[in-house]
Design brief:
15 helices, mainly alpha
Length: 368
């Protein structure tokens, strides 16, 4: 689905820009050159995460239950497979970040540089439990990886419940395909109306399932064969989103709703399946393919470039702006390497164990 890659490419570029405009001394120095743009990135760039949540839900429904019935024979094995696919590049990027942070710590002050990690902090990150256990993040954005895994497990559980309730190992009847959809609708409503309005839940999937579930529902709505059914379902989806915003306006939910509706239109118009897009969109499509690696690896690059520019002494604002642009380019280069050498490799427990061990060793070395 090239269009989804393009959307991920744009969203990832905005998220990287958001972090570039918030961490280190370079955005402070470059701010007078583009105050409105950098201010927007710093304040609202984080909203691009909602695009990833909606797309992730859309793809989860397409993969796990395209017809509303779970198509996974061994759910636990699928969960472990998902964990392996997520943490291989994640552990590699965290190892780089721990080492880079140790190198630049003498030259950068403040909270931008993560502190030396403890063994408990390293183990919690490797198991994607850092936020639930209250540990400080080793890198910016790692919360999303943990939430993505939780959301996948929750979605698979909701779609697998009818099979657990079925008394005999018979084939599901025609009514059973609607039960997972109804369960997803129920959790989406609960998330939008309650959990997403309470920051006590922001380390759990329940806080984010409103956006993720919108993506799942959009996929199933797109399977409707009658135009009237599709139109009615889209109107209901829009009303649900509008109702949630009427209860409590949240720009993140508005972004997720607009993203879901745009994907629904693109799906109905068969734009998602278009194999060829204009040449101008190709860089964004390629960026979307490596967006996960870019999301993971850009922060240690950001730390390194900020430390390097900071050692130059007093300098003009354009040097900071050039440093920020160089950071983005170097981050893309690092993401390409992470994508080719780690992310696209087949997930295996041997590789996960080796990468986990590398993170622990690097953390213990810099903490000693």
């Amino acid at each position: 689905m090239p269009l989804l890659d393009i959307a991920k490419g744009i969203a990832c570029a905005v998220i990287v820009g958001h972090h570039l405009s918030r961490y280190g001394a370079m955005p402070v120095g470059a701010f007078p050159l583009a105050p409105d743009f950098l201010g927007w990135l710093a304040d609202d760039g984080r909203l691009a995460v909602q695009v990833f949540l909606v797309i992730a839900g859309f793809l989860a429904a397409a993969s796990l239950a395209p017809d509303g019935v779970l198509r996974v024979d061994r759910p636990l094995a699928r969960i472990l497979q998902r964990y392996g696919r997520l943490v291989m590049p994640y552990l590699a990027a965290l190892t780089v970040c721990v080492l880079v942070a140790a190198i630049v710590r003498p030259w950068m002050s403040g909270d931008d540089v993560p502190a030396s990690p403890s063994i408990g902090q390293l183990l919690a990150h490797g198991l994607l439990l850092q936020d639930l256990l209250g540990y400080e993040a080793l890198s910016t954005g790692v919360w999303y990886v943990a939430i993505d895994f939780q959301l996948f497990v929750l979605a698979l559980t909701l779609m697998g419940l009818p099979a657990l309730w079925r008394r005999a190992p018979a084939a599901p009847d025609s009514r059973e395909r609607w039960i997972p959809v109804a369960l997803v609708v129920g959790v989406v409503l609960a998330s939008l109306a309650f959990f997403n309005r309470n920051t006590d839940f922001d380390a759990t999937a329940l806080y984010f399932f409103g956006a993720y579930g919108l993506g799942m529902l959009v996929f199933w709505i797109g399977r409707a064969t009658r135009a009237s059914t599709w139109q009615g379902a889209i109107v209901l989806l829009a009303l649900v989103g509008a109702g949630a915003l009427a209860i409590d306006w949240r720009s993140r939910i508005a972004t997720a709703l607009v993203s879901a509706l745009l994907i629904a239109i693109a799906q109905r118009q068969d734009w998602l399946s278009m194999a060829r897009w204009p040449d101008a969109a190709m860089p964004l499509q390629r960026l979307g393919r490596i967006s996960y690696s870019l999301f993971l690896i850009h922060f240690p690059v950001l730390l390194a470039t900020n430390a390097a520019v900071g050692q130059m002494g007093p300098h003009a604002a354009w040097i900071d702006a050039l440093g920020m642009a160089a950071t983005f380019g170097l981050s893309v280069a690092a993401a390409l390497a992470l994508y080719r050498w780690v992310e696209v490799r087949p997930a295996s427990w041997r590789a996960v164990t080796a990468l986990f061990a590398a993170l622990l060793v690097s953390g213990l070395l810099v903490s000693s």
